[in-house]
Design brief:
Blueprint (H helix, E strand, L loop, with lengths): L1 H15 L8 E5 L5 H13 L3 E8 L3 E8 L7 H15 L4 E5 L2 H16 L4 H18 L1
Parallel strand pairs: 1-2, 3-4
Antiparallel strand pairs: 2-3
Helix pairs in contact: 4-5
Length: about 140
């Protein structure tokens, strides 16, 4: 009986971790000028085995790439970020692309994506939210 007292709560704790929803690759294009770039970035990130959730948001003059890394690759997060940043700089030298693996940035990006999909944001509001997320990302680094 004592074994179940310890085993059951442990199973509940570990089972609760599986409740997080995966987003999958998501694209948000606020301004149509970056649509092709966003598709190219999305295709590249989908081929990556280290990532499992990505959100790419294209604003007026900036593109934000936020993603989640598979658990076994957490030790290489900075290297993965450098690799993605280097690729985007080589592929789009005249475009400012912000790359982040920070979970808070991912959540804020997801909230912006959901608000845009719901139709509750105008283009100006979405651009302001994107600028706020990029400013937050720069403050965290």
């Amino acid at each position: 009986m004592k074994k179940w007292i310890y085993t059951f709560p442990l199973m509940m704790l570990l089972g609760g971790c599986a409740m997080f929803e995966q987003v999958g690759p998501s694209e948000l294009i606020i301004h149509d000028t970056h649509e092709e770039k966003v598709h190219i970035i999305n295709e590249k990130l989908q081929k990556s085995e280290e990532l499992y959730d990505t959100i790419i948001i294209a604003g007026e003059d900036k593109i934000l790439v936020s993603y989640k890394v598979h658990h076994m690759n957490r030790f290489h997060m900075k290297a993965i970020e450098k690799k993605i940043k280097k690729w985007t700089e080589e592929e789009f030298p005249n475009q400012e692309v912000d790359v982040s693996s920070d979970y808070k940035i991912f959540l804020e990006s997801y909230n912006l994506f959901q608000s845009w999909e719901d139709g509750s944001l105008s283009i100006e509001e979405a651009q302001k939210k994107l600028d706020k997320i990029i400013k937050l990302k720069n403050e965290l680094t």
